[in-house]
Amino acid sequence: MKILIIEDDPSIAKLYQVELASRGYKVEIATDGESGIAKAKEWIPDLVLIDIMMPKINGIDTLKAIKADPNLKNVIAMMLTNFGQDNLVKEAFAGGASDYVLKYQSTPAEVAEKVGQHLFPKEAKQPAS
Q1: DSSP string, the chain
Q2: What is the per-residue pLDDT across 32-50, written as a single tens digit (0 to 9) for each?
Q3: All domains of the chain in start order, with CATH
Q4: What's the Cα-to-Cα distance from 41 to each of 37, 38, 44, 67, 103, rounded to whole Å?
Q5: Quick one: pLDDT at residue 64?
Q6: Whole-number Cα distances in Å, 95 to 1, 53, 61, 73, 117
Q7: Mean pLDDT score of the chain
Q8: Residue ranges in the chain modelled with pLDDT below 50
């Protein structure tokens, strides 16, 4: 499974990349919305993690551009940000986000768990055998 992280802070992006890669995901990073949209079109990830406050194109507009592309409309999009204002949350879900995660409330491991729940919803609900 391929995950694209669109995050302008390289150290934060690396934290999530290391955690997700350790779980077997192929992970790419884009450092702004513009390059994130281009990378998504080129790479076609299964899931994209999108920061909101970024240079060039903000996360909400990045999300909308990804969801508007016929080849990317089914890509799972999770917002990963420190901005939890109601208007941003509503706009993200209206734009096609599947989840809205606040960085300061979640560890990289918890974010990776949420990624797994979105990518493998049936497996996540079944009890361990």
Answers
A1: -EEEEE-S-HHHHHHHHHHHHHTT-EEEEESSHHHHHHHHHHH--SEEEE-SS-SSS-HHHHHHHHHHSTTTTTSEEEEEES---HHHHHHHHHTT-SEEEEGGG--HHHHHHHHHHHH-HHHHHSPP-
A2: 999 999 999 999 999 999 9
A3: 2-115 (3.40.50.2300)
A4: 6, 5, 6, 11, 26
A5: 97
A6: 23, 16, 9, 11, 20
A7: 93
A8: 124, 126-129
Burial 2-39 (b: 16+ CB within 10 A, else e): ebbbbbbeeebbebbbebbeeeebebbbbbbbbbbbeb
Q: For the whole model, what pTM was predicted?
A: 0.92
pLDDT at 85: 86
Give the total residue count for the chain.
Answer: 129
